[in-house]
Specification:
single chain, alpha/beta, 21 helices, binds phosphoenolpyruvate, binds magnesium ion
């Protein structure tokens, strides 16, 4: 049995599908002659175009024409005689086909990244995709098509990036197992959002588990059993069927008002990372979105999303929620969330470094682009802005001034927008200590127990060696939560919690007692959380 961290509840029983890291190193490829290299390049380009056309057709049927248009753009770029002739020239100069592709594509990437125009920047990302695809074909690198794995697959990888996760079809994937990550890492958050059992931090999982092996992943205990015995299979099938029954019984809470047994009104909201997650939120009947982690829109790409792309994402969510509250958190990067193209300098202590609101205030254009997109999207629903990692009043005032500046610019250009309430995450001890003062400056609080637990206990939230201390039930963390709720109540502002502890059955009764208004949880925990609240009686 392999031990890891249970990061998303449920049992996955099936066959392992290993997702290996893609190695595009071509340093060992030897040059034969120009004609052979050109032939290899031509074959790879033909193959790329054929594969891309097939993908285009299926995308037109399933995901709509926008994604297909992007791929059609890739075909056009590669069909451009200039690109291919440049590659052939490089081959004439003694480069292998791989190096010719790499050199020419990098030249285009640098050129497209160097301008201030967002659409041109986007081209850089397209060329990077073309480059990777051509190199994969030339090097014969086999990649697993995650979206098309057989039913009952347990995906095993070093880590899952958001783009890998977005390809997962939850009908076919019965669990995921990774070598890295903790309960609050992005792969865990995404797995929970999709309701897929996950066991993370399994040391050497990709070496110890082989492709096609029978496997059971226990997302509660964080255990992985390879080659289970008949007895183990039977016992886990029984556990799985009990769990499914229990989940089915929770369906009674869909659309039910969240109100305690003694009549106090509360609300269960949901945490999302991508517009696609809203589907799951609506199915489970959340009363709002308490945290939209916008950094996921910035991950797995080579350039930052444009204002238009962000506007599209935020307004899609606002529309889908149909007038219910949508709390959009401004970019929260740094710490464990690296976005290479933003070129955040390596720091000795990234969790105490240039992250979240600190980074945004120092990178005004990026911050303003996001704020403008949010203010414009607010026309289509009930949006609020939430600022992450606040530690002092100055940060709030500075951010509010930026928001005002964006409003003035939008008004001046005649662009449609709406002013929105501004709130903060209380996730640092510093914010807790001055929560009475902060409550005078903002319209709501949301307690981020994931970071608050880490900063209060001085524990790195991703380090499994100190994970014993990482517990929101520690008296110091409980006091921090109580102080924050009381400050909000005294000032008469709304107070929610969007850290994972909001769904913790041990904590929910205390949160109700202290007066928490809104519990924002992962979509798969909405109904369980509502049930616990509805059964609560003082
Ligand atoms: C938190 O810190 O509790 C939180 C909700 O934010 P994140 O997990 O994205 O840091
Ligand atoms: Mg946080």
């Amino acid at each position: 049995m392999l031990k890891g961290i249970g990061a998303s509840q449920g049992y996955g029983i099936g066959k392992a599908v290993l997702i290996k890291d893609i190695n595009l190193d071509y340093s060992k490829v030897r040059y034969s002659d120009a004609a052979t290299e050109k032939e290899r390049l031509k074959n790879a380009a033909d193959e790329f175009i054929k594969e891309t056309q097939t993908l285009c057709e299926s995308l037109k049927e399933s995901a709509g024409s926008k994604e297909a248009e992007i791929l059609e753009g890739h075909i056009m770029m590669l069909n451009d005689p200039f690109m291919l002739s440049q590659m052939n020239d490089n081959i004439d100069n003694g480069f292998v086909a791989e190096k010719a592709v790499d050199t020419v594509c990098n030249m285009f990437i640098d050129m497209f990244s160097a301008t201030d125009d967002e659409l041109t920047n986007q081209r850089a990302s397209d060329v990077k995709d073309i480059k990777d695809s051509l190199l994969k074909i030339l090097l014969g690198v086999e990649t697993v098509d995650i979206s098309n794995v057989a039913a009952g697959s347990v995906l095993v990888a070093k880590d899952f990036t958001p783009s890998m996760t977005s390809q997962i079809n939850s009908e076919n994937v019965s669990a995921i197992v990774t070598e890295v990550g903790g309960v609050t890492s992005h792969s865990a958050i995404l797995a929970r959002a999709m309701g897929i059992p996950a066991v993370l931090s399994v040391i050497d999982a990709t070496k110890k588990i082989s492709d096609g092996q029978d496997i059971i992943a226990d997302g509660f205990l964080g255990e992985v059993i390879t080659d289970p015995s008949t007895q183990e299979f039977d016992s886990y099938r029984a556990k799985q069927s009990d769990y499914i029954k229990q989940k089915d019984s929770l369906k009674a809470y869909i659309g039910k008002e969240t109100i305690t047994a003694d009549g106090v009104k509360k609300a269960v909201y949901a945490n999302i990372g991508r517009p696609e997650d809203v589907q799951n939120v609506l199915q489970n009947g959340a009363e709002g979105i308490g945290l939209f982690r916008t950094e996921f829109l910035f991950m797995d790409r080579n350039t930052e999303p444009t204002e238009e792309e962000q506007f599209e994402a935020y307004s899609t969510v606002a529309r889908a929620m149909n007038g219910q509250e949508v709390i959009i958190r401004t970019l929260d990067i740094g710490g464990d969330k690296d976005i290479p193209y933003l070129k955040i300098e390596k720091e000795e202590n990234p969790f105490l470094g240039h992250r979240a609101i600190r980074y945004c205030l120092d990178n005004r254009e990026l911050f303003k682009k996001q704020i403008r997109a949010i203010l414009r999207a607010a026309v289509y629903g009930y949006i609020k802005i939430m600022l992450p990692l606040i530690t002092c009043i100055d940060e709030v005032n500075e951010a509010k001034a930026v928001i005002k500046e964006c409003e003035a610019e939008l008004a001046e250009s005649g662009t449609e927008y709406k002013s929105v309430p501004v709130g903060i995450m209380v996730e640092t001890p510093s914010a807790v200590f001055i929560s009475d003062l902060l409550a005078q400056e903002v319209e709501f609080f949301s307690i981020g127990t994931n970071d608050l637990t880490g900063y209060t206990m001085a524990v790195d939230r991703g380090n499994s060696k100190v994970s014993k201390l990482y517990d929101a039930m520690q008296p110091s963390v409980l006091r921090a939560i109580e102080i924050t709720i009381k400050s909000a109540k005294k000032a008469g502002i709304q107070v929610g919690m969007c850290g994972e502890a909001a769904a913790d059955p041990r904590l929910i009764p205390k949160l109700i007692e202290w007066g928490l208004d809104e519990f924002s949880v992962t979509p798969s925990s909405i109904l369980q959380t509502r049930k616990i609240i509805c059964e609560y009686k003082a």
